[in-house]
UniProtKB/TrEMBL annotation:
Swiss-Prot/TrEMBL keywords: Hydrolase
Record family assignment: Belongs to the AB hydrolase superfamily. Epoxide hydrolase family.
Top-level lineage group: Eukaryota
Protein species of origin: Kingdonia uniflora
Keyword flag Flavoprotein: no
Keyword Cell membrane: no
Any one GO MF annotation of this record: hydrolase activity
Domain AB hydrolase-1, residue spans: 30-69
UniProt protein name: AB hydrolase-1 domain-containing protein
Length: 252
């Protein structure tokens, strides 16, 4: 699930492959999530490990809770006020700026980012970086996909997606009781080497250090970094992701 990519459509690329495998579970479930879906999956595993048999996280690792600094404050300190998560905080502000841009072009730009730099959106000026001509789409993304996504946001607007980011500090407050707690669920983490999240300040060290992700998720079995793959990994590499998911969850 990603707040700017309707979830059923975004997983259709990997779902086609997964459907070739039949796995039946009883009792606790296996959870798979991408981006914000991954965040929700991590929270579920943290809070209710008794109902989760195993989990696969795409793109977003577990975030250790810092009891002395809220999420947005941390992003402002390490990434600056123009960082996209910081810009998304003020209700109505980004909705107004997004409305000034052709929605299909906005979705194309958003879905085809491959530069793993910090995503900065300077107020009222980032729109100048929008493509002036048609962009050649990658093989995993079609005009039909773009038009589908655009039609949903043209109908409902972007507030629903932006509100996920506006709730990060509320999530921080609500999880105070789990400060320093470990995620006690078998897990596998998969990301691309061009993913924006992978290149956030300190993220690589956290993911690969024995004192980082592995310490917070003691039952983490594998970390997979896919080469030349960006953020929308389940679409870009649907078959490979499906195999990774199936080969992991069939053990449970």
């Amino acid at each position: 699930m990603h707040p700017f990519v309707p979830r059923l459509h975004s997983f259709s690329h990997s779902r086609r492959s997964c459907c070739a495998h039949r796995v039946t579970w009883t009792g606790p479930s296996v959870v798979v999530g991408h981006d914000w879906g991954a965040m929700m999956a991590w929270y579920l595993c943290l809070i209710r490990p008794d109902i989760v048999k195993a989990m696969v996280s795409l793109s977003v690792p577990y975030f250790r809770r810092n009891p002395s600094m809220k999420f947005v404050e941390g992003f402002r300190v390490f990434c600056g006020d123009d960082y996209y998560i910081c810009r998304f905080q003020e209700p109505g502000e980004m909705e107004e700026e997004f409305a000034q841009v052709d929605t299909p072009k906005l979705m194309t730009k958003f879905l085809t980012i491959r530069e793993p730099d910090l995503l900065m959106l300077p107020k009222n000026t980032w729109m100048a970086g929008m493509p002036k001509v048609s962009v050649t789409l990658p093989t995993w993304l079609t005009e039909e996909d773009i038009n589908y996504y655009a039609s949903k946001f043209e109908k409902k607007g972007f507030t629903g997606g932006l509100n996920y980011y506006r709730a990060v500090d509320l999530n921080w407050e609500l999880t105070a009781a789990w400060t320093n707690a470990k995620v006690q669920v078998p897990a596998k983490f998969i990301t691309g080497d061009l993913d924006l999240v992978y290149h956030m300040p300190g993220m690589k060290d956290y993911i690969h250090s024995p004192e980082g992700l592995k310490k917070d998720v003691p039952l983490l079995e594998e970390i997979v970094i896919m080469e030349d793959v960006a953020h929308f990994i389940n679409q870009e590499k649907g078959d490979e992701i499906s195999k990774h998911i199936y080969n992991f969850i069939k053990k449970f």
